[in-house]
Amino acid sequence: MEDIKKVLKEFLRGAGSVVFLAIGSELRADDAAGIECAKELLKNKLPENFKVLLGFTAPENLTGEIRKAKPTHLIICDAANSGLSAGKTSVIETESIDGAAFSTHMMPMNVFINYISQSSPLKTLILGIQPKTLDFGAEISKEVKKSAQNLAVVILETLS
């Protein structure tokens, strides 16, 4: 998690307003990783310039709200298969998802990011949490839940 902390610190340097967008489905076990992280963030007093949005499986429905916030920085968090052990957090390069749907969601993430960026330029960071299982109806695994909670702590520490 120390590597992620360094990445976040560098990414957020000079940030004006930041939007944290959680993506995922609570119906598919560890696909809820981003949602779990967002819920942990929302339990805390957040800085005025930091907004948390729950995109669930249709983050494109929040494009208007994101554009209205005019963020300088966008952090997207979702479950992502990066070949690591369950619960490990990684940075997903936007170039690596070019033309491909991201996780289990409808709109390709690169299209989503490009659309959001049209109104005002912003920096984007995609954080992926390695799922253990994406079985429909299963509970989020202990590894992924703990990782999502730890990521929220790291984000809050970085913001303060």
TrEMBL record:
The keyword Magnesium does not apply. It comes from Endomicrobium proavitum. InterPro entries: Pept_A31_hyd_mat_HycI, Pept_HybD-like_dom_sf, Peptidase_A31. The gene is hycI. One of its GO terms (biological process) is protein processing. Keywords: Aspartyl protease, Hydrolase, Protease. SUPFAM superfamilies: HybD-like. One of its GO terms (molecular function) is aspartic-type endopeptidase activity. Belongs to the peptidase A31 family. CDD domains: H2MP_MemB-H2evol (cd06067). The lineage of its organism: Bacteria, Pseudomonadati, Elusimicrobiota, Endomicrobiia, Endomicrobiales. The keyword Membrane does not apply. It comes from the Bacteria. This is Hydrogenase maturation peptidase HycI hydrogenase maturation protease.
